[in-house]
Amino acid sequence: MASSSASNNIQEENGEKKFIPSNEFVLQKHAAFFDRNHDGVIYPWETFQGFRAIGSGIPLSTVAALFINISLSGKTRPGKKFPNLLFPIEIRNIQRGKHGSDSGVYDSEGRFVPIKFEEIFINHAHTYPDALTKKELKELLKDNREPKDISGRIGALAEWLVLYHIAKDKKGLLQKDNVRAVYDGSLFEQLEKQHSSSKKKE
Q: Which is deepest, 103, 123, 170, 172, by most CB within 10 Å?
């Protein structure tokens, strides 16, 4: 179980306890970028800070923070009787936030499924073998829809539209390497470095 493995993820570094995301359960690494103080919990202001760090504007960062934290907080806090109005997301339980109508690239425990990732491009990359156009992305979302799964469809649409917005290249293509990098969170780290570097040049 991802949650039991994640219980050992609190480690001490330089006298401070920090949450170290699991290498096996890649979904934790994806989410951990937004855990700005590395305590294993993501609050809306941290989600906002994470989006700003990768170069997103204030409107997108605000909407993303509210949508993501409100959507995932309750799901990642199993056993809690009362909602927390600060809407924290517990990374060790992030796999509980998986929704329907998705690509299946994360399994039910938050592990990366290579064959499902490859199927995205095998089935939908018609123009270029290693990239998706905006039209092909819409096709992907349509093909992944599950009947009567309104919340899952909304979640999938929001995730892919944000990914397209932050990761498309100058030709409007979503490159395979960038899509792969978002699954383990490394794309966020790359974008943060690029944004930080461009700010220094201003």
A: 103
Q: Residue 16: beta bridge partners? A: 13
136 vs 29: CA distance, rounded Å: 27
Q: Are 52 and 61 in contact (CB under 8 A)?
A: yes
Cα–Cα distance, 170 to 167 (Å, whole number)? 10
Residue 86 CB-half CA count within 13 A: 8
Considering only CA atoms, which of 93, 101, 126, 112 is closest in space to residue 23?
112
- How far is CA 65 from each of CA 42, 44, 45, 68, 105, rounded to the nearest angstrom? 10, 5, 7, 5, 23
* Of 165, 135, 137, 157, residue with least CA distance to 60: 165
pLDDT in tens, the chain (202 residues): 444 344 468 777 677 788 998 888 999 999 999 999 999 999 999 999 999 999 999 999 999 999 999 999 999 998 877 889 999 999 999 999 999 999 999 999 999 999 999 999 999 999 999 999 999 999 999 999 999 999 999 999 999 999 999 999 999 999 999 999 999 999 999 999 998 887 776 6
* Token pair belonging to 191: 């974008």
Query: Which structure tokens are listed for 56?
Result: 């997103």
> Where does residue 49 rank: exposed (0-12), middle (13-18), buried (19+ CB within 10 A)?
middle
Write out the two tokens for 90: 């517990």
